[in-house]
């Protein structure tokens, strides 16, 4: 059982100041996130309508992946009722049940990415100076050999069934999106998925309780996702920020949309043509926030490198190949700040 104090408990205590281990260094602090919020609001993260003709979908995806590394998808085919029911079930887990019951599903603190209910992301987090203002539940969902619904909450009713159904829907959508991303680069539809291989999918429900000092804390520190593609849903309380042209922009929740985040392995596979999205989560003083992120990663034994069709004498490889196990180990043994794990693989193309 993980020994960390749950952030939700700290919030419910009514503290006026946050403990020192949650205070970000000055250069990482979000500042007053309630001030000039309209100026920081990112209402124009691209939205791609997947029901449109492919002739309009492909260039929209190409532009979004090159310029943003993120885009909403609408008319994506995932039932709205499933999205709503899963959000309600996850919120109910965090809000409606005694802590002693939730702690029965606590993460193992000795293993990175341990399945279950946690607050500390990294094994080494005992030695970190700063912690995220967040509790979460991480589910190992794919391949099916990893899926063990008995490790997921048995409350509220239908939680396990909803999570399993959502996992299957997200897999199908991720495959569809990677195919469109491949085609938008002039590659065969299966190209990126073939490079990734069988999906290792995790679903993380993150709960960000109200925080008395949102100007000093982060719900989730700056990072890019390590896998191939992340699919995220929010509720009506925003807090996700993306880094665009050196500025942090708040991504407004778009009703019934799913946010797509390009992740590190896809940047490598596309030889830098598609950019991973650096993002973070901010907190607020009055409202709790929920997000549900679905990560699609390669197996640890897969070696990732730029696809040959995107490499030529005029476009040399930008990244060295990497065994995903090694990339994963590097990410979890370091504070995953920004894109620095990906940047370690950059090759010197000036020679």
Brief characterization of the structure:
InterPro entries: DIOX_N (IPR026992), IPNS-like_FE2OG_OXY (IPR044861), IPNS-like_sf (IPR027443), Oxoglu/Fe-dep_dioxygenase_dom (IPR005123), Plant_2OG-oxidoreductases (IPR050295). With 351 residues, the chain is α+β, with helices and mostly antiparallel strands. 27% of the residues lie in helices and 20% in strands.
Please state the structural category.
Answer: alpha+beta
- The top level CATH class name: Mainly Beta
Distance between the termini: 52 Å
If strands are numbered along the chain, what order do they take across the biggest sheet? 2-3-11-8-13-6-5-4
CATH level 4 superfamily: B-lactam Antibiotic, Isopenicillin N Synthase, Chain
How many β-strand runs? 15
Protein name: Fe2OG dioxygenase domain-containing protein
Pfam family, one: DIOX_N
Keywords: Iron, Metal-binding, Oxidoreductase
InterPro entries: DIOX_N, IPNS-like_FE2OG_OXY, IPNS-like_sf, Oxoglu/Fe-dep_dioxygenase_dom, Plant_2OG-oxidoreductases
């Amino acid at each position: 059982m993980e020994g960390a104090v749950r952030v939700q408990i700290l919030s419910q205590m009514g503290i006026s100041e946050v403990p020192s281990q949650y205070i970000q260094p000055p250069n990482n602090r979000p500042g007053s996130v309630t001030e000039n919020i309209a100026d920081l609001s990112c209402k124009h993260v691209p939205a791609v309508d997947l029901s449109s003709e492919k002739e309009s979908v492909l260039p929209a995806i190409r532009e979004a992946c090159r310029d943003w590394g993120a885009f909403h998808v609408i008319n994506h085919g995932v039932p709205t009722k499933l999205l709503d029911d899963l959000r309600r079930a996850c919120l109910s887990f965090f809000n409606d049940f005694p802590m002693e019951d939730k702690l029965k599903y606590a993460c193992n603190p000795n293993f990175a990415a341990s399945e279950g209910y946690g607050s500390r992301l990294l094994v080494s987090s005992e030695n970190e100076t700063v912690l995220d203002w967040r509790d979460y539940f991480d589910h190992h969902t794919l391949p099916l050999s990893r899926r063990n619904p008995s490790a997921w909450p048995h409350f509220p009713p239908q939680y396990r069934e909803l999570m399993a159904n959502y996992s299957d829907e997200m897999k199908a959508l991720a495959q569809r999106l990677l195919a469109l991303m491949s085609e938008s680069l002039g590659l065969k539809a299966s190209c990126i998925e073939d490079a990734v291989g069988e999906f290792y999918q995790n679903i993380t429900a993150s709960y960000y309780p109200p925080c008395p000092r949102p100007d000093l804390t982060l719900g989730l520190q700056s990072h890019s996702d390590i896998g191939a593609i992340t699919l995220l849903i929010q509720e009506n309380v925003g807090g996700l920020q993306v880094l665009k042209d050196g500025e942090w922009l708040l991504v407004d929740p778009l009703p019934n949309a799913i946010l797509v985040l390009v992740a590190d392995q896809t940047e490598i596979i596309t030889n830098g043509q598609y950019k991973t999205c650096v993002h973070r989560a901010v907190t607020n003083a009055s409202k709790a926030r929920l997000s549900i992120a679905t990560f699609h990663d390669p197996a640890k034994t897969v070696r990732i490198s730029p696809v040959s069709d995107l490499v030529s004498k005029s476009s040399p490889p930008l990244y060295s190949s990497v065994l995903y196990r090694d990339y994963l180990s590097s990410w979890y043994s370091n504070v995953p700040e920004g894109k620095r794990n990906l940047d370690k693989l950059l090759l010197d193309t000036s020679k």
